[in-house]
Amino acid sequence: MPVFIYKAKNTKNEMIDGMVDAASSDIVANLLTEKKWNIISISEKNIANPDLSMLAIFNRVRSKDLVIFFRQLSVMVKANLPIVRALHILVKQTENKSLRLVIANVANEIDGGAKLSVAMTKSSHVFSNFYSNVIASGETSGRLGDVVDYIADQQEKDYDLQSKIKGAMIYPAFILSGLFVIGMIMMTWVIPQMTTMLTEAGAELPFLTQILISASDIFVIFWWLIILVVVGGIGFLVYFFKKVEIGKKFLDQVKINMPVFGKILRKVYIVRIFRSFSTLLKGGVPIAQALETVKGVVSNSIYKDIIDDAILAVEEGNSVSESFATYEEVPIMVSQMMSIGEETGRLDEIIDRMIDFYSREIDTSVANISTLIEPIIMVILGIAIGGFVAAIIMPMWQLSSTF
Description:
Elements: E1 3-9, E2 15-21, H1 25-34, E3 38-45, H2 50-58, H3 63-78, H4 83-93, H5 97-111, H6 116-121, H7 129-141, H8 144-201, H9 207-243, H10 245-257, H11 261-282, H12 287-295, H13 301-315, H14 320-325, H15 332-344, H16 347-401
Antiparallel strand pairs: 1-2, 1-3
Helix pairs in contact: 3-4, 3-8, 4-5, 7-8, 8-9, 8-11, 8-16, 9-10, 9-16, 10-11, 11-12, 11-16, 12-13, 15-16
């Protein structure tokens, strides 16, 4: 069905930009006329239009954009502002063009009589099933404001967690990138000049220097082949680990079993899974349905399989805590606390306390890694630079000693 983008002025003489699915422009015009809006323009946009594709590429919706969106929507819903009115305000205030179009589309769907949860499912590339299911539970229970507030809180916590982990990686990534650039300069410019000088002088070259010169010669002559092999190899690995099921599972298994980082990633997945699970339970979503929704929030295939088994266990009438207890990827404390929550009927409260505990554990681990990374990087940097210096200075020293 074609997509029409319109501009119109509402009954308060405010300019409204929007997007709606319709069979023809006449239907869009009738819809706007029924609202007593003054139509400025109506133009057709195909969903596959390259302009929109480029817009999605260069203006992808980031986690930060969704954090801001849900926090602002939460404030307006709690202030008893109508959903459509709140969304139209957000269209004007949202900087990301892709998200702006999505919000406008959601507003138009609601204008056409759809619920907010249903309207969001039509933009599933931005609003996952997690959002639509949680919001649907809020619409059913009459607690939409509280539910949107829950989502806003969880989005902020997830964003803070991601920011801390990324922040800890910035320093080593910067140092290693600088080391790589310096190494390339040495191999392509410094070493060849040094080789010419040493060859003309007839100096005897140490073994380390010979290795460095040989590597430099190979790089200078076959640089195009090296780049081709590296780019091709990276492309193959990306395809294998992202598209091939065996590759994805292998990479996901490696991630959670890495020294130091593996333990942190396990805690991150646990927090992400159970934070979403708790939010859905508070919204009145049944356990099996909540687990099915949570599965879409987790990117690791190992934990998706664990959740699948938990769903099967619940559907067969078994305890979800017993299912989680059979996997070493899930800490024993998780299943024990969930068992207590099931026995006392306070599962969501117990999960919240467990999430707080693991969130603090992650903060401590990330802080410790940030402290440990600096000396490790300095050692690596010292060894690399020391090797380069030794390979260059040693023949120079030997050459000077002959005079």
